[in-house]
Amino acid sequence: MKKKKEEKEEGKSGKREGSDRGGANGGVDGGGAAESTEVERRCEVDSDSSVSDSDSCAEEVERRGEERCEKTNRLYVVPGSPSKKISPRIQGRILFKQVKPIRSVPAAVEPRKMQLNYRSNIAKIVKIVSTSRLTEAHRVHLQRTPFWLMFEAILENDLKTHEFRKCDELVFKLIQTYVSDTGCFHIGNGKLTLRDNDIRLIFGLQCGGQPLLMTPGPRPPSDFIQRRFGLESHISSKLVKTLFCDAVQSTSARDVKDAIKLITLYVYVKLFFSTSDESVSWTLIRIIDKLYSMKLYDWIGAIRSALLGSVKEFHRILGKITGCVVVLLYFLCEHTTLVVADRPEVFSRFLKWNVGTLLARMRNMTQDDVDKFEVLPGRLQVSKYERDQLLSGNNVVDDSDDGFVDRIDMIDDVHRDEKTIDARNPIVNVIAGVAPI
To answer: By CB distance 3.0 to 4.6 Å, which of 34, 78, 140, 295 could disulfide with 19?
Structure first.
């Protein structure tokens, strides 16, 4: 009998340990298991003392189960909830996510300033031309391009690159003054029209009147293109600059000519026909491949049309404007009295002006200054020195290296009567200032 009681005690202690582990691991379920064990223990004790009653044990188990269900489905308030809603917890888990507190919004949010970066940049041209160590052989080929006077002015003058750094902020303000109905820039108390003559004098361009067709085309077959671009399908200004720096180091006749083609192409895409991604069209490459016929084309009209066409279409979406936007800074200097020229006697005219001085002047302007400065509409007047420079070496040659057509013999007719339009030579009339733009 004593042995039997010891076995019962060991069984009871084992059951109690199991119920303790169940309560620790199972939470609410563990508590229910402990209660069931207690009911069974009481039934066993009653059975052992011969007072067991099966009906009372069943009622006790049922009552304990009902109490456990009530504890499980007890309602509670979600802590941290601003809504005070009551949610049920089942097996220790929350059915609904807690409501996150709403962050306070600042009363006033400052709008972000529009950051524009126009690609047209004359400072890049000044830097690469002045540091490339072009030889006399390079200069001979440069003289056959429409941009020789601009190249010569950079090579002959000791220029500081920072004087020509573009200012997108000022370009942005100038474009905002454009009115598409009038086709003019409304500045101060006047209206200014960008003319071909402005572009001619600012950059010192020498060119003919043949229309320049810029329609897209496929990759043209050419030894120059195959030699320099290989299998490249996308040509960028960065690639053109790299190829030029390689070619300019060589002294062979072919590499010298290739270097001039590449630097001319770089000027086109970096200054005159800049795009948002600085990509180079195959049309431009095909034109510069025929180096000695470039002066036949109307580059001035093409530059002006590309810029004003973009301004007219996107003057309300300023970030999409392309073309030679940097000319507008010098256009403002030429047609207003905002700043005084640093080098009044040099040509091309972009060398006369310091863009940094213009920017400082615009930033520090008061209302009195706005009322005082003068706007100078109308065509720019060509000085005798500038006319001589534009007509010097203004030879148009065909694609072969011979067949020069010299137009210098027509200068005397222009000088004798500047008000007489010479129907034989439109370009001389424009340079002399007697033909309409």
So the answer is: 34
